[in-house]
């Protein structure tokens, strides 16, 4: 059989050009993916740092409440004064509470959150798992976002169980609680994320819910080609997802 040399030459040339172009494409695609990944990692470090700063404000506020409570022999008559001082300079914190025996007894500021007064955290089936987890861990637990009963805003709730020593035995006194609005956490971050060319989604943690609650999400987030990152919080984990626009 006679071989048509021009056709063979054409096919060989075509294949060489094709695979050369494919190699270039794969090289630049890999380079682009690496650049996107590096950019996402750097952005994520900044985002996590800011989130941790907000969380640290909550931790500091909770611990300050517990310290002042113990210094005053568990007398809460000056609670409003403590809360006012504790909240100074902590822009992300919306509310401070104390819940003796698991029942909300003190709130600051009062007016916006007064509907929560008397709320029994240990009997409310929508809240009890998170409250019981805090007691079990004997440490701060961050839960949320959840819709608040007092104003239907979405917030992150941080609780720390307080134990009082009576006759050399520790007895559960109640909870020191801090409420942080979702807007207070994500407000300063959304523009930074979008300016870097990404959409995002942040999922929270709530032991009282079957699925992870949605903390916040940008308008055009689709979930395609996601880059996922863990955000560790006390006794829980959030999932932060970035997506290139």
UniProtKB/TrEMBL annotation:
List keywords of the entry alphabetically: Membrane, Transmembrane, Transmembrane helix
Which GO CC terms are listed, alphabetically?
A: membrane
Q: Name one GO biological process term.
A: signal transduction
Question: Where does the record place it?
Answer: Membrane
The primary location reported for this protein is: membrane
What is a GO molecular function of this protein? catalytic activity
Q: Where is the CHASE domain?
A: 103-191
Give the domain of life: Bacteria
Gene3D superfamilies with a match to the protein in the record? CHASE domain
- The record lists the membrane-crossing segments as 7-28
One Pfam annotation, family name? Answer: CHASE
Q: InterPro entries given for it?
A: CHASE_dom (IPR006189), CHASE_sf (IPR042240)
Please report the name of this protein according to its UniProt entry: CHASE domain-containing protein
> What organism is listed for this UniProt entry?
Arcobacter arenosus
């Amino acid at each position: 059989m006679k071989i048509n040399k021009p056709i063979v030459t054409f096919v060989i040339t075509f294949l060489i050009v094709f695979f050369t172009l494919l190699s270039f494409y794969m090289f630049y695609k890999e380079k682009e993916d690496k650049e996107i990944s590096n950019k996402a990692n750097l952005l994520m470090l900044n985002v996590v740092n800011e989130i941790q700063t907000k969380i640290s404000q909550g931790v500091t506020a909770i611990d300050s409440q517990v310290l002042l409570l113990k210094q005053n022999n568990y007398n809460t008559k000056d609670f409003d004064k403590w809360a006012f001082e504790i909240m100074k300079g902590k822009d992300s914190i919306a509310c401070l509470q104390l819940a003796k025996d698991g029942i909300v007894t003190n709130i600051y500021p009062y007016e916006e959150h007064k509907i929560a007064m008397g709320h029994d955290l240990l009997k409310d089936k929508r809240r009890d798992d998170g409250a019981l987890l805090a007691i079990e861990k004997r440490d701060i637990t961050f839960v949320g976002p959840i819709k608040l009963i007092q104003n239907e805003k979405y917030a992150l709730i941080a609780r720390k169980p307080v134990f009082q020593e009576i006759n050399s035995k520790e007895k559960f006194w109640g909870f020191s609680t801090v409420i942080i609005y979702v807007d207070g956490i994500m407000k300063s971050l959304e523009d930074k994320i979008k300016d870097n060319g990404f959409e995002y989604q942040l999922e929270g943690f709530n032991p009282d819910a079957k699925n992870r609650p949605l903390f916040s999400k940008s308008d055009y987030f689709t979930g395609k080609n996601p880059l996922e990152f863990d955000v560790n919080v006390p006794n829980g984990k959030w999932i932060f997802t970035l997506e290139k626009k």
